[in-house]
Amino acid sequence: MAEAEPGVAAAFIRDAPFEVLKALLVRLSPKWILRMRPVCKAWHGKLCNRALLTLLHRAEPPQPLLCFDRVACSDGYIHLSDYCVESFDLRSGKLRTVLRFAGNEDYFVDEYDLEGRDAPPIIDDDFVNFDRMKHYGDAIHKPQVTVHASLDGFLLVSFSSHRRWYIINPVTRHWVSLFDPTTFALDVIGFYEHGRSGKYHVLCLSRSNVVRHEAAPTYSYYVIGVRPGERRHIGRPLSPAASKDHGLRFGVERASISPPIQWKRGNMDLLWPPQERQGYQMLVFDTGNEVFSWKRPPPVTMADDQEMRLLEFSDGNLGLSVSRKNQATLELWCLEDYRDEVWVLKHTIQLALQQMPALLQDEHLWIPAVVSSEGDVLIQSRHVLRKSLVQHPMFKPSENDAEPPFFRWLSSDPSW
User: What CATH number labels 11-60?
Assistant: First the structure.
């Protein structure tokens, strides 16, 4: 068979409908799509087209994220750890590195001689995606990397040893630094795209002074723009449609613990899974008008040990995973009618614990969650990532930004 003339191939690439190109490109990894850009002008033009890249992003299956902390050196006197975030491909069952780095700053309290025999042992903890400190005997283990949010292929992450926060695209390896919200006593509770401007914002929570005669502190809310990094206090604004305040002043769990999800229809709402602080109602933030309201959760019995996680179905509807700590039964609900708050039970899943001896022997809490619309279950996963090649103007390098550490150890992975 004769090879196609270059002009004919370029014409096909230039004139092919998006759906045809999508059918071809979904079979390739983002890494190979990036390599195809300099092949010719026709490919470069198509593979930099935002509309096509957005189609490819939406076709990407969600991949749950896991954080790991491994000993990087077997020598007991060299305290070096390997920190990484990995995505789990539900189709192949393989883990793929998203970001990775080595470091040891602030790993132990200062009074220890890190090079001497008094140094406590390196702790190999296989899951450190907590924003709490862990105490193991004399050693104080600080999580070095925390994933706070995942949206549109971007991750909001922080590094305790650097006191820096970043928004990164692990596929294109673009990044932008963000000031540390904890410097202003702010907790990050959400990360979202502003519908009208297309800019990305971080939603934060601030503890206010304790009001007289109240037993608990009250909270107010801030919006941080990624660029230029302005911080705005919005108080506790309620939507006119909110018939009742179900607990806005009591705050929301941090996004690293209970991540919200942005429903990109209508008002581009940001929604949180039901929490005790909100009377087990679903808190909703209208990102365009910057007001809060609530939606009814599924008709399930709420309890303190209930674990709920939001996810997005391939058809754009919202799903809610409902489970209990250390319990083998899970439910997956679908919000089929967003306006009228109609929930439908999609799956009831029973884990085969007899095939999971590690869970039966584990003395600690384990938390199962449904992570896909097909009913796949994963233990201890909070965030998901959909890989994206979409460019965004917020990724503009600054001369004052120090090179971040998280891409230095990445090996050449053919899947990225």
Answer: 1.20.1280
